[in-house]
Each structure stands twice: as C-alpha cells, then as structure tokens.
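go over this:
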Amino acid sequence: MIKVFFLLFEPGATWDGIARARRGFSFILFVYLLPMIVISSAVEGWGLDRWGKWQPKFQQLKTFSNHGIVTFEAIQAALLLLMVLVSALLLLKMSQTFEHRRNYQQAFTTMAYGYSPLFLAHLLDAGPMVSPWASAIIGILMVVWVLYQGIPRVMQPDPTHAFGLYLSAMFVVVLTTSIARVLPGLFLLGVVDFKNSWLTHKFPALLQ
C-alpha cells in the first residue's frame, strides 16, 4: 500500500519504475491489488462493526450484524475487483482503436495501480459519519490525477493519441467506479433494503 503514496506524490518516477519492472498479471493481482482491496474492505468492515453508519434519511446510526458485514464486504470486494478487470479490458479496447500493439497485461497494470488511490480513500468509509459518496469522489479525483501520469508511460500510446486515450479512460473510471460504489453506498445509507429484495428471499441467509 505504500506505493500508492509514491503514485500520488512522485507519480512520474513511480510509473517509470512500474513500467520498467514489467510485473506479471499474477504478481500484481495477488501481491498488490487483492491485498489493497482486502485491507480497505476489512477496515470499513471494522468501522461498521464498531460504530455503524450514519443514515441521514432516517437520522440514525445504523448498526449491522457480523454476518451482514462479512457478506456486504465480500460482495463489495468482488465488485471492486471486477471494476478493475473490466476497466482494464475497456482501456485495452480503446487503445486498440488507435494502435494494435497493446496487450491486456499493460492495461491491467495501468488500472491496477491507477485505481489504488480509490482503495486508499475507501479507508475513510470506516468513519461512521463519512458518506460513501465523499470517499468515492475523493478517490476518483486522485485516480484521475494518477492515471494522467500512468497511461502514457505504461500504455505508451502515440503522442498524438495519448490525450484522447486518457479522456476515454477517465470516462471508464467514472462509469465503473460509480457502478461499483453506488449499490454498496445505497445499502449503507439505507436507501436500498436488500433484506426485502428478491435476491435475499431467494437466499434467506444473505445479509441477515
């Protein structure tokens, strides 16, 4: 997780090092990405267990059962992992509209490291009064900053296409992050009641 601070404060040199290292898919997934997702989810889960989450709609501090917290965090972690994998695929497809020399490994490396500030901001959600929207917006802004330095260094697009690819990638970041954070956020704020959903009736133990 320390690398995320270098990406934020020394992005150029850090991205150059990432590009030179050429880490494999498994290394990035199991050594960097999954630990960050697990840590951020565990910290949020600890906060939910200790304090709960303030729900402005009901003007109350909502508490959650241990089973409900574990299920919620597992689902959210899966959504965050899927967010990175899908974003990498979309980045690859967009880069191939300009050139066909790129591969999924480059796109995955870019997105796995590029999304790390979002997971750092996710730690804020452990606070009972912190809105999920606030942490998501902070995270997206940091991702936008980090990827501005990362896409040219890892994806190595033609200079004439670099900014266009960056803008396309930012659209993907906003879209996928919104999808991955909307449902969990709505649940925590009490806007969506999964206990009365079709899914929960189909699987009664879910989120109880």
About this structure: Residues 2-202 form one domain. The mean pLDDT is 89. The chain is about 75% helix and 5% strand. The CA atoms of residues 132 and 208 lie 21 Å apart.
